[in-house]
Write a structure and sequence with these properties.
One of its GO terms (biological process) is tRNA modification. By secondary structure, the protein is an alpha+beta fold. It contains 15 helices and 20 strands. The two termini are about 35 Å apart.
């Protein structure tokens, strides 16, 4: 290992030297074993944040049942606290992907505010990742490889070994007498990444010995290009009036006309950056959904369906609706104690400001044909009132309606509608979130 390895590691970690904690993702394999050992050695000489380890046990193979004990013994020898998190891996087409998602969900839940999770991916892993994504047809962002740092839960994920080769880590481990576990599934070529690691990349390196260096250098160039595309997207999203809420509801939206003025590549670039924290991005074939939505007639109601929700257009804007938000089922309910907030199943909560109206109250939802008697205006169709208030059609089935017997007293989001002159109450709604749970 190069003599300057420790200084390179500390230079990378410098921005997080004052973090509340450094938590090491310890699998028991070579890279995470070396990372934890090295940080403990440095901590004996320098002030570092508190160091602990997290081991995620997937329970996918019998041999893996011994790994938590191995990791615990290693941590005990270093005087490092360790936490074991057991996860359930969902069955699916890609066991690798399901295990990774379960693992990172566990890591995200384990991180406190501002804490850092350090993982041991190295330079060879980066080259493997770039090749894997290349064969899957990834774009600039995918081919930039694994990010050295990114947000994770309430903290941040750090990969401080991305500049180090596996061979260097192995020399360090042998020099310090470290032992590590080998996952037998890594030898199975049925998994795509294993095939790349064991068959493809070694052959490439035999032909081009510096292949790992050149692949990762290309990834660095692409990462820079992705940052430039991000800056372009931010400017375009500002021009498109990007916003995250609408009259108190969490409803991300963009102005369609402003997007449509851009070239198609810039449209897709802006939308990718806008959708990235909201949904898994569509592949090339699914971008036809954007064109259909963009070019639809003004009175049409097209839908662009994605894995984590859907996009709709209304009032000249593109709106994001997450799957949990779309799954709402309206259910009427009595409001027996108006002095207390009323929790609405999957639809937030209602409360009164001021003295509530008398009489038995009930919350219902639109069925069509509702009429509201307004002070000084007479009877008005609720549909017309919602049109006047520019409430998008897709929101209307969620709006709680306050009834007293057959009298419609109030509508959530529209506190200005008054059934009585000088009434002493206002209906307040705390809407639900519109979150896919992505970051």
């Amino acid at each position: 290992m190069p003599a300057d390895f420790e200084s390179r590691l500390l230079n990378f970690l410098a921005p997080w030297r004052n973090a509340p904690a450094w938590r090491i993702a310890l699998s028991g394999g070579l890279d995470s074993t070396v990372l934890l050992h090295l940080l403990v050695q440095i901590a004996s000489r320098e002030a570092l944040p508190p160091i602990s380890a997290i081991h995620v046990h997937h329970g996918l193979q019998a041999v893996g049942d011994a790994w938590p004990e191995h990791c615990q013994h290693f941590c005990d020898s270093l005087g490092v606290p360790m936490r074991v998190v057991r996860v359930q891996v969902d069955d699916g087409a890609s066991l690798e992907r399901a295990a990774r998602e379960a693992r990172y969900t566990a890591f995200a839940e384990a991180l406190g505010e501002g804490e850092c999770l350090l993982t041991g991916q190295h330079r060879d892993d980066q080259a493997e990742t770039v090749l894997f994504r290349l064969f899957r047809g990834a774009g600039v962002r995918g081919l930039s490889g694994m990010a050295a740092c990114r947000p994770l839960g309430s903290g941040v994920l750090l990969r401080p070994l991305l500049g180090i080769h596996r061979a260097e880590l192995e020399r360090y481990a042998r020099r310090h007498g470290l032992s590590w576990v080998e996952d037998p599934s890594n030898a199975c070529h049925d998994f795509d990444r294993n095939y790349l690691r064991n068959r493809v990349l070694p052959g490439v390196v035999r032909r081009w010995p510096s292949a790992v260096e050149t692949i990762t250098r290309s990834a660095e160039h692409l990462a820079e290009a992705d940052r430039l595309l991000g800056e372009l997207a931010q400017g375009d999203l500002i021009s498109a009036g990007a916003r995250n809420e609408y009259i108190g509801m969490q409803l991300p939206s963009l102005a369609i006309a402003a997007l449509a003025e851009l070239s198609e590549p810039r449209q897709r670039n802006a939308l990718r950056h806008w959708l990235a924290p909201l949904a898994r991005l569509p592949d090339s074939a699914h971008w036809a959904g954007w064109r259909d939505l963009r070019d639809a007639r003004g009175d049409a109601e097209p839908i662009w369906r994605l894995a984590d929700g859907e996009l709709r257009r209304a009032h000249g804007r593109l709106w994001w609706l997450a799957n949990p938000w779309l799954g709402f089922v309206p259910r009427s309910q009595a409001w027996s104690d108006p002095s207390q907030s009323l929790l609405l199943p999957d639809n937030g909560a209602l409360r009164f400001e001021g003295e509530p109206p008398g009489g038995p109250l009930e919350v219902r939802y639109r069925q069509g044909g509702e009429v509201m008697l307004l002070a000084g205006r007479g009877s008005r169709d609720l549909k017309r009132l919602l049109n006047e208030a520019a409430i998008p059609a897709f929101m209307r089935s969620r709006l709680p309606l306050l009834w007293r017997a057959d009298e419609l007293l109030g509508v959530a989001l529209l506190p200005g509608l008054r059934v009585e002159a000088g009434q002493g109450w206002t209906l307040r709604w705390t809407p639900p979130t519109n979150d896919s749970g992505l970051s």
